[in-house]
Amino acid sequence: MQLKPIPVLCFCALISALLPHRGEARDLYDFAGTPLLEAPVIVAESREPVAIGNRIRIGFYNIENFSDGQDDGDQRTPELASSQARLAAAIISEMDPDVLFLSEIENEQSLRMLNESLDRPYPEARVTSFSFDGQREKLNLGVLSRIQPVSCVEIDFGAMMGPGRPPRGVLRTVFQLEDQSKLLVYTVHLKSNYGKSLRNESKRFNALQLVRENADQMMDSESDTRWEVVVLGDMNVDPSLAKFQRDRSLAPFRDWTDLFLTTREEGWVTVPYRKSSPFRYESAVFDRILVSPELSREPWTAGPPNVVTQGINTTDPGAIAGKGDHVSDHYPVYVDLQR
Predict the structure, then answer these.
(1) pTM of the entire structure?
(2) Which CATH class is domain 12-338?
């Protein structure tokens, strides 16, 4: 099912004229085209409404290259895929989120395998089906939820062009809260640090600009609704590190709250140093949670972020996901929204 495209700004000169960071984008790579809004693949769906309590735990987990193990090579057999699913499920069960967003999920088979590995599978499950140049993307986004979403839409960047075109896309999910508010969540997996720094920064900036623009449109479309908005995922940038001090990737949300900047525990990381990591010299908090100003005041407020430091073998540079105790190169994160 294909939904209508969303209008976007196609060039960074126009982008920079809209938000408080005016002028900052002028040397970034531009892009052109329109992202498509499409329905994600439904893996599980429940018709039973679930009452919203006074706490909603929202989690995010980048599960490293979580493919289904079919025709994926000798280091990604069905047995390894199943083992990784069981290992990840144990960590997810301990985290116990009401809604869990995921990245690097290959397809519906992968998400189903993960969900069925849980002691208590989620009744709602969706996964994106991003594509580019006619090829389906392997690093998709997914959601597992105990709360029935009002809507769940993938924003696919695959039809866009230009050196600043962001990879993949975004998953947008809306939940109805019982106090006539709506919870709007964007899940992202931004450009990695492979390749040229300026191009990587451009792709991250452009993706978040498109998210911010869409969030503003969503809120304007229902001005009588109180919107609580969260943007979370693997952003591949950590503004607390010297390497990223001049990086503008997160600038479209500079007027929102980055929970990992307002609350910082000693030694906190989501991607720890590993000898085999392309980010070789220091650990980082790449998995970030950004919240709108509404989530700093009643009725709903965002608590501090949390990191579950399990599932990474940091001593073996050749660790393979699904072997031994190695699940992923990222730790999962979560935040509690309290009423």
Answers:
(1) 0.91
(2) alpha beta
